Amino acid sequence: MLKFSVFLSIIKLLKTFYEHHPINERVIFVNVIILISSIFQNLLGGGELMTRSMIQPYFVLSAKKYYKVIMNNYGISHFYTFRRDVLESEDIIAVPDGCFDLLFTCNDVSPSAEICASVLHPKKVLSTPSSSYFGVRFYPGECIVDQNISIKEIIGNTVSLTDIFDTREVFEKIVTCNDFMAQVSIFLEFYTKQIAKSKSTANDLLKKHMITRIIESKGQLKVKELAYDIGYSERHINHRFVEYFGISPKVFSKIIRFQYVLNKLNEFNNCPNQRNLTLIAQEAGYYDQSHMYKDFSEFSNSSPGQYLDLLRQKDYYNRLVVIQPTIITTL
């Protein structure tokens, strides 16, 4: 099997071309790099990319309607919007997903925009009533964050978007806009320009490869296997992973396994039974259901059975409205 180091050598050569390319053409070059990356993922045994969505189901369950636009480009998983009315008293819980979200709180009193790093345990969030929210969920490791900011320090916390980017004009446009698709277009116009200004490095591709391999394995890939695949020592992989993502590969793998189970439970919502739960545990690589129950409870404060009951009681899929990406105009 080809070593990932061969891939990195080729990318370093391409990087030289990138750095001398006009800034206004770099978005095209980024897409070329992504294409080359996906080709080499297949050669390296990777194939499947990060197409499974990392979800926050309690956001959906807290809203009468939760609108979601699938993106799968520019490192963005999807856009979403929902409203929290003043009479709604239930807490909104964020669960670990390994992702960064950009979240805009749209109201007349205290509008805001924050970068929200993945939580490591269930956490109460979004307590502002009478507000509409517009969010951007990135795939793990894909959000552009200032290099001077320690990812490790913001895991589980939030940072004001204006601390990272000069976004006042974009912020005003989004929080005062009542049209979801218009908000998506405003953000994409801004973000693609940020991508064009950023410099792609061999480290970015190493980050993407590590994340993709763990997600493809449903969180079952051992650090030892990842180190062998890339050609580095386990110690080096652990060090780099924490530097890039703020958590260890072991913790990230555990979160990905939880998200896999979460997605599967949502799929089985209409026909839950003991056989399905056993099958999910096996597919997620658990020795038995008790281990799956322990991890699920740690990350959601509920058992899989309680979660399925909540999905039915709250009529999850009647609240979720998924809009296909074909309606998004390419910028």
Q: Can you describe this structure?
A:
By secondary structure, the protein is an alpha+beta fold. The chain folds into 3 domains: 4-50 and 199-245, no CATH class; 57-197; 269-318. Helix content is 48%, strand content 15%. The chain has 14 helices and 9 strands. It has helices at 4-19, 26-43, 57-61, 151-154, 168-175, 180-197, 202-216, 223-230, 234-245, 249-267, 274-283, 289-300, 304-313, 316-319; strands spanning 66-73, 76-84, 92-94, 100-106, 112-117, 123-125, 131-138, 158-160, 320-323. A 7-stranded mixed sheet has the order 8-5-4-7-2-1-9. Strand 1 (66-73) and strand 2 form a beta hairpin. Helix 1 packs antiparallel against helix 2, helix 8 crosses helix 9 and helix 10 (249-267) crosses helix 12. The protein is globular.
Biggest β-sheet: count, sense, barrel?
7 strands, mixed
Summarize model confidence as the mean pLDDT: 81
Number of helices: 14
The strand order across the widest sheet is 8-5-4-7-2-1-9
Tally of discrete structural domains: 3
The Rg value, from CA coordinates, equals 20 Å
Classification by helices and strands: alpha+beta
The dominant shape is: globular
What's the end-to-end separation, in Å? 38 Å
Strand element count:
9
Q: What is the helical fraction, as a range of percent?
A: 40-55%
Low-confidence stretches: 1-5, 23-31, 40-51
How is the secondary structure organized here?
Layout: H1 4-19, H2 26-43, H3 57-61, E1 66-73, E2 76-84, E3 92-94, E4 100-106, E5 112-117, E6 123-125, E7 131-138, H4 151-154, E8 158-160, H5 168-175, H6 180-197, H7 202-216, H8 223-230, H9 234-245, H10 249-267, H11 274-283, H12 289-300, H13 304-313, H14 316-319, E9 320-323
Parallel strand pairs: 1-9
Antiparallel strand pairs: 1-2, 2-7, 3-6, 4-5, 4-7, 5-8
